Amino acid sequence: MACSVELSLLKEEEKVLLKILSKLNDHLNRLKVEELALQSYIRKQKNEQQTQLLQQQLSTTTSTTFFAAPLPVSEKPVDFTNAVNQEPLMDLNANGITAVKSGPRACESEEEEDDS
């Protein structure tokens, strides 16, 4: 009989311990979710602070760059003779005939072409 009493006490104790285990697991899961939420909140706050800091830095650097900083002065004069200006001009004459005719004859030939 002592064995059955001890056995029933152990079973009750096991049930109580299982309930406690279940409650502790639930509580642990809630704490994990809360931890993730807090980490997310902290990350969001840090990102907002960093963006505000960057915006402040950009605003101060742009304002000082545009308004306070003098324009750089080059000691070397600007060279306007670049590679394009140094290339020789192409001969636009085709076989020695000039592209632009001069005199009244050129005008007459153009009028004749327009009439036809």
TrEMBL record:
GO terms for cellular component: nucleus. One of its GO terms (biological process) is transcription by RNA polymerase II. InterPro entries: SNAPC5. This is Uncharacterized protein. It comes from Helobdella robusta (Californian leech). The gene is 20205127.
